[in-house]
Write a structure and sequence with these properties.
The chain is an alpha/beta fold and 755 residues long. It is 31% helix and 16% strand. Bound molecules: ligand MGD (2 copies), iron/sulfur cluster and molybdenum atom.
């Protein structure tokens, strides 16, 4: 959508790539200048919503520190180079390592922004496959892998994650999530605050469980403080209560469930009366929460990062869905429902209702033996895999939109490990704490120079939709889009050379994929999409073969839907999505069980054996005494992980990297508001500025991650003026959820001393 206005101002539509809310933005430009950004009023999904980060796209586009040309390390310094020189250097340095030491000698990591750039997301896997290494790492194991694993075990696919149908809900129990600040996660829900307000206005109830009275707790009916890491005890206590008080109601799902009796037996030892001390919530309250959930006509439990980044992350994620199933809240309007995305969703492909399910542990990490999960190894084993000699040692690393020096526990150790690599390449937009270690840095385009379609987030959205944004600006001449940069790296890894024809390689890979689905019809299908290349072609293929598509004339869409959507009976195509101003609304979430299931049994597996087997570990932890003080994380609406601290509109105002403590702790430790203090753990120590806050639970310090921009060699001039400190310097990279490999980011014991 591009409109001409009288004053030669143009208005373009762009899906915001900065967080999971995926708001549609209107970007007003004059020539090459961005003159304003606002929420796109005509967006069918976000309806004009924008947060302060959305405006910062202008700053990001204009940031002088954002890289525009490749860099190569010469005599220790990263200096500008041409694209051809950069790829030639990669070939010269990387190939000998692959040849001499094998595929696993090259590690690859991918970070959070890749989920927001469809060229990166769709082509990263092509590069990983071309490399053929087992050493694949992503931010998922610092984040949501527990939820993906529990969902995969229960419903059959890693991305079959149920999300609250908030607009029809009248009860929402939010645990370990702060969507007012984060704008939602594993739940694409622009303007959570507005939707929560509407829920309460129609008589609904919002309850928040968090060790800090968060911004979300501030807009809730009730906030309950929990001891960090205590969620498994609360959740198992609630499940116990449902059985104990005969509150279990399966409703429509009764005939689609395996394992009910096994769950009942497994939670028998978890009576709330035994759980209370360990989770810090009274037994009567645990029972009341279970009764409230059971009694609510429409509602559900939603839990996020605070419950995932714990050593019981997978158990927590599972128990949340068990609660929703046992109270007839799963797959029901107003409850937790499965979106039906228009493209790329595995749970809409293949035979509906059953499938192969998921497996883990197809290989293990070399040093700690951490099992493979969803094709990856835990990010927290990266440092030891680089440091430890032997066959399979990582000697070269490719990072794609990833900053593990700040985002991964043991960041300082990892920084030392990166220095010991034989070779490192980064595809990134900054020279930052991680990419400063690279030998070659390949810059990415600004989001405003790139087209976009969300691959993952429509699979997690509160409402079904399809939206596309075309580039606001032409990319600079000679700057390849990210998918081509990734394909050139893939060509090098495949031994085809830095100068291989990437468009031909793209054709080859696309055709191979189409052949798997279309067989003999492949030439016809390829012909039908022959005008497109790169991610756009993959999108067209996915839309047309998706649940709303026309299967290239081989399948008719549901006529009722075709009528409602006004798209005609021939189904969704990229051209239709592109030409619809503000995108296409595909309606509220619909019940999908059993069709969504891809478990071998064709049922919801309520009692996956690996999860039942992990429950005794939780029981054994019941009597672990609480450390005197622990640290947890925090998100601020004007910050985003580690990389938006260099943008003027977000950096202004009060410093957001402070350490929060309760007034009682402050008094006990002699800490004043604004005073400096030393925060230390067994693993590291940082100097923090204190903020005294009655929102904290006593004994808990809150410090945001993603800070610590004072490392030599990084080129983030504004961020360096108020660098903050790296929370992950305090955390232990050996602490993981054993099932998912996810890092433990919450509840590390710390001490705090005034300085
Ligand atoms: N202690 C603690 N640690 C945490 C967390 C926590 O809550 N507490 N949260 C964790 C979570 S949820 C996550 S997702 C991870 C995130 O971990 P990472 O993904 O490693 O971290 P980000 O800070 O998102 O860094 C993104 C990187 O991508 C680059 N980048 C930005 N835009 C682009 C682009 O368009 N193209 C390319 N090629 N690069 C780009 C940035 O410069 C930066 O280097 O951090 C985790 N770490
Ligand atoms: N503004 C902003 N938005 C973001 C990001 C950002 O950095 N800034 N990051 C994005 C990313 S990568 C992600 S994954 C999402 C995350 O989105 P959310 O899951 O909403 O993450 P947080 O806002 O960190 O909220 C987690 C809450 O868990 C609480 N908590 C900590 N430990 C525990 C515990 O043991 N138990 C319980 N019950 N609660 C606990 C914390 O106090 C915090 O309030 O946000 C995304 N959006
Ligand atoms: S909430 Fe803010 S950062 Fe997130 S998508 Fe919307 S405008 Fe962008
Ligand atoms: Mo994340």
């Amino acid at each position: 959508m591009t409109e001409q206005s009288p004053a030669d101002e143009r208005s373009s539509y762009r899906i915001c790539p900065l967080c999971e809310a995926c708001c549609g933005l209107e970007v007003r430009t004059r020539g090459a200048q961005v003159v304003g950004i606002r929420g796109a009023q005509n967006d069918v999904f976000s309806a004009g919503y924008i947060c302060p980060k959305g405006y910062a796209l202008k700053d990001l586009h204009e940031d002088p520190d954002r890289l525009r040309t490749p860099l190569i390390r010469r005599n220790g310094e990263l200096v500008p180079a041409s694209w051809d020189e950069a790829f030639a250097e990669v070939e010269r340095r990387l190939l000998p390592i692959l040849t001499a030491h094998g595929r696993d000698a090259v590690g690859i990591t991918v970070g959070n922004p890749s989920a927001h750039k469809f060229g990166l997301l769709l082509y990263f896997s092509r590069l990983a496959k071309a490399l053929g290494t087992k050493n694949v790492f992503s931010a998922s194991t610092l984040d949501q892998m527990p939820k993906q694993l529990s969902s995969g075990l229960m419903f059959g696919h890693w991305l079959s994650i149920a999300v609250p149908d908030i607009e029809r809900s009248d009860y929402l129990l939010v645990i370990g999530a702060n969507p007012v600040a984060s704008n939602g996660s594993l739940w694409t829900v622009p303007d959570f605050r507005g939707k929560a307000k509407a829920l309460r206005a129609r008589g609904g109830r919002l309850v928040v469980i968090d060790p800090r009275r968060s911004e979300t707790a501030d807009v809730a009916d009730e906030h309950l403080s929990i001891r960090p890491g205590g969620d498994v005890f609360l959740l198992a206590g609630m499940v116990h209560t449902l059985f104990d008080e005969s509150l279990v109601r399966l409703g429509r799902l009764a005939e689609h469930i395996n394992g009910l009796a096994e769950v009942q037996a497994a939670v028998l030892p978890f009576a709330p009366e035994r759980m209370a001390a360990r989770c810090g919530i009274e037994a009567a309250t645990i029972r009341r929460l279970a009764r409230e959930l059971a009694a609510a006509p429409r509602g559900c439990v939603y839990a996020r990062i605070g419950t995932c980044t714990q050593s019981f992350g997978t158990l927590n994620s599972w128990l949340v869905d068990v609660l929703n199933v046992l109270t007839a809240k799963l797959d029901e309007p107003g409850g937790a429902m499965f979106p039906r995305a228009a493209a790329f969703a595995v749970n809409t492909a293949g035979k509906p209702g059953s499938g192969r399910g998921i497996v883990t542990g197809r290989h293990a990490s070399r040093v700690s033996g951490a099992p493979e999960v969803y094709g990856e190894l835990p990010m927290t084993v990266l440092a030891e895999e680089i440091e430890t000699p032997g066959t399979g040692q990582i000697r070269a690393l490719i990072t794609v939109a990833c900053n593990p020096v700040l985002s991964c526990p043991g960041g300082p150790r990892l920084a030392r490990a990166l220095d010991s690599l034989d070779f490192m390449v980064s595809l990134d937009i900054y020279v930052n704490e991680t990419t400063r270690h690279a030998d070659v840095v390949l810059p990415d385009l600004s989001p405003l120079q790139d087209s976009h379609y969300d691959v993952a987030f429509p699979q997690l959205s509160f409402r079904n939709h399809a939206r596309y944004s075309a580039p606001v600006f032409e990319p600079p001449a000679g700057h390849p889009p990210e998918w081509q940069a990734l394909l050139r790296l893939a060509a090098i890894a495949l031994g085809r050379g830095a100068r291989a024809d990437v468009l031909a390689l793209d054709d080859e890979l696309a055709e191979a994929e189409v052949r798997k689905l279309a067989g003999d019809a492949t030439p016809l299908v390829m012909q039908a999409v022959s005008a497109l290349r790169g991610p756009d072609r993959l999108l067209e293929l996915a839309l047309r073969s998706g649940p709303y598509g026309d299967l290239f004339g081989m399948k008719r869409v549901d006529p009722a839907w075709a009528l409602d959507s006004g798209l005609g009976a021939d189904g969704l195509t990229l051209a239709k999505v592109r030409s619809a101003p503000g995108g296409i609304d595909l309606g509220p979430l619909q019940p999908r069980i059993p069709e969504v299931l891809r478990t071998p049994s064709g049922r919801i597996e309520l009692a996956p054996p690996s999860l039942l087997a992990d429950l005794p570990r939780a029981l054994a932890d019941l009597d672990t005494p609480a450390p005197e003080m622990v640290v947890i994380g925090r998100r601020d609406v004007r910050s985003n992980n580690s990389w938006m601290h260099n943008l003027p509109t977000l950096a202004k105002g009060p410093f957001r990297g402070t350490a929060l403590v309760h007034p009682l702790d402050a008094a006990r430790l002699g800490l004043a508001d604004g005073a400096a203090a030393r925060l230390s753990s067994e693993h590291g120590e940082v100097a923090v500025f204190m903020e005294i806050s009655a929102a904290m639970s006593p004994g808990v310090v809150s410090l945001p991650h993603g800070w610590g921009h004072d490392l030599p060699g990084a080129r983030l001039s504004l961020a360096a003026t108020r660098p903050g400190v790296n929370l992950n310097a305090l955390l232990d990279d050996s602490q993981r959820d054993p099932l998912s490999g996810n890092a433990v980011l919450s509840g590390e014991a710390v001490s705090l001393v005034a300085v």
